[in-house]
Structure formats: C-alpha cells, structure tokens
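Bug #77: duplicate submission created two jobs. Keeping one. Sequence:
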Amino acid sequence: MMQRNKKIKVSFNNDLELIYHLHNSALANIWIEKIKHLQNVALDPVESDHEDFSNIHSIYNEFCRFADMDPVDISTLDQGKLNQLHKIYEDKHKTLSTKKDNSVLYRFHRAIHFYESGMNASKIRAGWGKYEGLLTTEFQCNKFYEDKIIRNNIYLPWAELGKKPQTYWENKEPDDQERFNTLAKPHTTFRAQFIIATSNINPRPLENNFIKWFTKYKEEWLNFHNITKWDHLDEYSAPLLAETDYNGDLVGLKVKKIRLC
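Kept job's structure:
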C-alpha cells in the first residue's frame, strides 16, 4: 500500500536538520523501502561528495597503480582525453569493482565528471556505494520525471554507467549507433541514492543541433532501451521523492544522515 506523507529527517554537516514528506508516487514508495534498510548505514564519502575530486592527475595515477596499468598522458585534459578516460573506467569497472578497497575506481569516475562540468552547485548528492548491495534494481524511472526541479526538495538521480543522450553529443562521443546505444542511456537503474536541489530548475529545451543529430539514431536507440520518448525533461529533470517547507539556502552543504521519523 502506498505510504502517504511519511516523514523523513535529513541531517547536514552544519548540524541543520530538515523534515521532509514523502512524495505520493509508486517510485517514491519504492525508494523509501530502500532507505529503511540503509538509514543506519554510513553514507559513502565518494558518492556523497565528501571528498576532493579536483586533482584528477593524482587520482588517475592512483587508479593506474590499483588497476596495474600504464597511465596515458593527461597533461592536456580536453574533452577527447576525458572521453578516453571514461572509456578506460567503463572497461575496467567490471573487474575492479570486485576487488577489495576499490574506492579509487569511483573517485576516478567522479574526477572525470568534475573536469567535464565541475562539481554541480545546483544539487547535493548522497549515496551508500557498495553498501547499497542488492537494493539496486531495474525500473523505468523516466515516466516519473517532473516538469521542473524545486529548490530544497529531494529527487532521484540518474545513475547509469554512461551518459545522457545530449551529454553524449556535447562531449563529442563517436557518431556511431552501436556506441551511442551502449553509452547513452535512459534512467533504468534505480539506486538508493538521492539528490537535494539547491536551486529551482526549469529544464531548458534540447539544443536544435542535437535534435538534428539525434534524429539519425533516435528510433533505434529508443527501441534498444525499450522506451517511447526522450525530451528535455528526460535530459534535465528528475523524479521527485520528498518535499520540504524549508526555504533557506543549502548551497555548499553535505548530507550527513537520513532517517525515517
């Protein structure tokens, strides 16, 4: 049965505590069941952005030692080089994710995206990493995406090993259907992560040049992922999980804990 208006308390690193009310949706109800199992588990410092990802050179060298591989030259970090690093991460993920003490694998991934777009000040991230375990499920999340993002509310983040379609295009990934199908993904991995918006966002229209480019690949890509559409909401919005009446500024804060009231 759907839980209505269940209360959630979120604690931040400045000792602020906020009360949230669970959104009334099937997706939010599934999420809160995951949170029940994780509320007493410490958040993962990498997934929750508690660490510094700005020194990609140091992180990459550590990653290469962990992966027992020779580093490529990253003295120049243009988008092509970042794409190459992301491909290395993808190729090594399956093997390295099974090794002990593998946090550098995920720090490397976060560092790549730090250099692509910077640490996004419009959201606060929180997740449990490997401790989430079997709570990761497959679910068609895109149908629950909101028309807009409201400041201070909790949303479910896109959590795929890949990129969204327009991001794929913006990053100048290969003009290749097979690679596009593999790397560009909708939101079908439902993890017990969450993000808190720190600003209002009205999803902007997709770029006209992207739409023209996407036309070549769209039909096969939609069929490949068993979805019916991809628009600006899918690219820039997210599913609502919980709402708060708090109107203060959360920019720069980190989530310390979440628990059910």
